[in-house]
Structures are given as C-alpha cells and as structure tokens.
Amino acid sequence: SRVCRRAYGWQICRSIGRTCLAPFFSVTFGDNLVGDVMTSLTKPLQDIPSSMCYIMSHHPQVQSSVDAFTRSGDTCPQWEHFVISPLIAALPQWFRLLQC
Fold first, then answer.
1. 3-state class of 76 per DSSP?
2. How far apart are the first and last CA of the chain?
C-alpha cells in the first residue's frame, strides 16, 4: 500500500531485532520506542496461546475440552501455563532491561 511500504516493514523488523539483541547494538531512539511498545503489549501477547488452543481444539466442543475449560479457563495443556505464558511475559521485560 502507499501508506505502509515494504521498506518500512523491514525497518520495523530490524528495529525489533536490534531491541532483542540490545547488548550487541547501540540503542537508538526508535529502538527505545519499540522496547516500550513491546513491554506495553506483554499482557495482550499472553492471550495468543490461549486463543490458539481454542482455535485448534475440536469444534463442536467435546466433553473433555469443556471440562478443561471449566477447570482452567481455557483448553490449553498445563505446560502452556507453566512454560509459554511466563516466557511471553518475561521476554519483552528482559529485552527492555538489556537496553539500559
């Protein structure tokens, strides 16, 4: 499109990469903003695995999926709650810390 050209998308991807590898690159103002946005999106990013578990589950819902949803509020396996969610919560904060 005329508004979001391919070059701008690549610049954003490079800025995200520099933010994730902050100790190895100097931090620019744009990288600082990307780090702020990443930390602000921590909570919405944590909803992605639960959404994916729901989308990938059986439709119409089988009784075991309904029981899992009643028990834990979603249909994800337990390891998702103990591994993926904390990792998604911690990584943006860690990248931001490395920018300092």
1. coil
2. 36
Place of tokens 């834990």: 72
Contact assessment for residue 35 and residue 74, using Cβ atoms and an 8 Å cutoff = no
**Residues in contact with 19: Cβ distance below 8 Å, sequence separation at least 6, in sequence order:** 31, 34, 35, 38, 95, 99
What distance in Å separates the CA atoms of residue 73 and residue 76, rounded to the nearest whole number? 9
Cis omega before residue 44 (within 30°)?
A: no
Per-residue pLDDT reduced to its tens digit, 20-74: 998 898 888 989 999 999 999 999 999 899 888 888 887 888 888 888 888 877 8
Question: How far is Cα 60 from Cα 57, in angstroms, rounded to an integer?
Answer: 9
For residue 8, the Cα-to-chain-centroid distance in whole angstroms is 21
